[in-house]
Amino acid sequence: MLEQYGVPRQYKDGEVIFRQGRSGQEMYVIRRGKVRIFGTHDGSETTFAVLREKDFFGEMSLLTGEPRSATAQAQGDVSVSVIDAATFAHLISEPLVHDILTRMSHRLQKVDNELEKLGSQDTIRREHLGHLMEQRHWLT
Predict the structure, then answer these.
(1) Please, what is the Cα angle at 105 between 100 and 106, to 5 degrees?
(2) DSSP string covering 52-111
């Protein structure tokens, strides 16, 4: 349903959609393909999720105003709908909805930061984190 509000855009395999640490002015809904969401800490990458058709991402920066907490990269050819900040704000214009989503995004960002730190400490923990990341997927 969200994809109807966005502008179509295509990405090739391996292409970065956005980078961790950069400001975010839009969110994305996957129309076709897969997108890997990952963070980098101390030179190690931790994959948070692999998203598929109808999943969305990039909304946290729009809600919190903070830089991107992760990098999004196309896995294979990907088609997305890009929803700009103004359209997103209109879609969540009810103050209670906005407040709930903002609080949830802050909480999720804290969890992602902690998982990223743990993931960079050693390989065994990263394998264990893979299972946690799959469980986190229901939030996206």
Answers:
(1) 100
(2) -TT-EE-HHHHHH-PPPSSEEEEEEEEEEEEEEHHHHHHHT-SHHHHHHHHHHHHHHHHH
Higher pLDDT, 99 or 18: 18
Q: CA distances (Å), 132 to each of 46, 105, 128, 136, in order?
A: 11, 18, 7, 6
Amino acid present at 24: G
Tokens at 93, concatenated: 């214009």
3-state helix, strand, coil in the chain (%, to 5): 40, 35, 25
- How much is the pTM? 0.73
For residue 137, give the H/E element and its range. Answer: none
Query: What top-level class would CATH report for the domain 2-133?
Result: mainly beta
Is residue 47 within 8 Å of residue 37, measured between CB atoms?
Answer: yes
Copy the structure tokens of residue 97: 């909805």
